[in-house]
Amino acid sequence: MKKSLLLGLTAFALSASSAFAAPTGYKSSAFGYGAGATGGGSATPTLVTTASELESALGASGSKVIIITKDITVSNHISVQATNKTLMAVKGVKLISNQQNKDKSGILYFKKGSSNIILRNLTFVGPGAYDCDGWDNLCFDGVTKAWVDHCDFQDGCDGNFDNKGLTDNITISWCRFHYLKSPKSGGSGGTDDHRFSNLVGSSSSDKPSDGKFSITWAYCWWDSGCVERMTRCRNANLHFLNCAWTSNDAHYFVGPENATALFDGCYFITPSKRVSSSKNFIFYQNYGGSNACKFNSCSGPSSYMVNSGSVSTPSYSYSTQNADAAYSDIKSYCGATLTVSTSGSISESGSSSSSSSSSSSSSSSSSSSSSSSSSSSSSSSSSSSSSSTTTWNFSQFSSTVTLAGSNYTYSYNGLTLVGNTTSSYTSDYVSKNGFHCNGASTSSIRYIKYTPSSNGTLTVKFKSNNTSDNNRTSAIGTAVGSPIVTATCSQGTMSASLSSGKTYYIYFVSGGQTITSITFAASGSSSSSSSSSSSSSSSSSSSSSSATTGLCTFTNSKPSMSNVSVTGNYSTSKGSVKINGTSYSTCVKMESSTSIKVTVSGSTKVKLYFDTASKKVKVNGSSVTTDSSGAWTGNFTSGTLTITKGDSMNLFGIEFSNASNGLDIDFFDATAINGVSAEASAEGSQKVIKDGKLVISKGGKFYNLAGQEL
Predict the structure, then answer these.
(1) From CA 418, how far away is CA 449, in angstroms rounded?
(2) Which tens digits make up the pLDDT trace of 298-316?
């Protein structure tokens, strides 16, 4: 799917009241409460590369289309009154603030009198949350008629995006809000973890001239790290259309005060971290006054989604997508996923990766080789995906997650795990062994819900919890009790054909069982539900697939890229390592039990970021040494490498880049030439050139630079 247009043609002349129905990640004109916002219209684009150029263009008179063409770091937030302006960025370009203080923090502040604003495809990278009464990544303070579309908000010092003052008639669509950096404590505001994403109204008396902030939130995603204010809303009428809340760190999602909120087709999880902690999770935190909320066709914990008060349907037309299907689209198209050219054309092809790192590009590990036998990730991958096949085998769970209570909902990489009866479960859990249900049956409902985004085949592996009883039965169906296919534990595998956009249920017909793995293969692809039987190209073989690229970090104690799986322990108390200008504080501890498996495609340079220089780590069983900065780099072709402990240290990130344009080695480092005899190097290892490549010769055998035997 790919759509495009050229600014200034008919794009902004389209009817603002047309229904917002297409879940394509693309919309050509403003809709919802912000309908009618045309921004700079057909103005010839103004290209900017510095903060001063950006401030000048935004504050200039007349209509302007402004395009940011390179990263801009602001030393002080840009405060401007702007009218009739469209601001966009070419793909991958970021607006950055590293300031964590009251006066200079924040990135963009639109003040009273600003109107008719469009912001698209912007990535805001803040310094991390710090409660110093500072500024937000983006703030509307008296803005009327605006559309904020396909923007990515990360790590605001005070908030990610606030609306206050006289702000009114706003639409925010396909925007992603998340926190990738650990919060800083000790600020003058008094909150040590101020990952508070979105505020509507700054005080009880703050409101626009009509008395209510009117804001449409469509296909927005409150992702990892968000703790509160998703949103906190005073004096507001809010419409949440097909939005998703998936932060496991949340205290609450929505906090109203004299506000109404309508949720249509929205997707929610129950944050397990907060359910069992001293501060229990509250879905809808009431801050006083007269409040009302209404839920239509939402997916999530029914105990939290309780209608109260009177909520009016917006006057504009719209249609609602299935909540689970919407969440699938959100993961593909939410954030700064548009492609904007310097001439002003826009296209949307989506994103194949939901990596949380702002600097990482979509992982190319999903690209299949043109060889007839494409490689697949090893069976230890927690959720290995390609353009056609996705496998869940639960190996990311280094510790057990207990699913207890009369009703639970737990989300895992696009799957929804549900316990949905009035009975209280005490023995259900998810671990590296799978989704375990004790005494499950259709009369005590536990199931996994999945909505595919394409036609394909779902394959499920399961087993009985009691190995002496192999008569337990599981099923895949269109509802619990409406099976398409069933299988007993003596068989242990079942497959069914699924249709795009339809919700399916994997459930237990009888007895306690465990789902051990699930694979979905889109039509035209071959399922590899057991990756152990798949072939991986050796590191010395040629590959026509493109190189794996991106940055994998471990925020929220899991890899941010699906081609990396971790068996081991995480820590946030081992300091931090700076990678490409950004500090990361979550690491994998290199212990005797640690094993990190990495799958790459094409000719890929792999760089490991540790916290200790000149120390040993094992790559595929061979010992290598970190450099003076604590990093180690090796070059690989399609295949899998395993990283295990050498010396004690901590891994903070893995960077993948294209190695096809030149190896990161010095050929003058070779001590012998092609055709060196085995006897010449039998007593030690040396670098030699063999068949035009620099390799290691040792003990009569040849190895690549990662220690893999050729």
Answers:
(1) 8
(2) 998 888 888 999 999 999 9
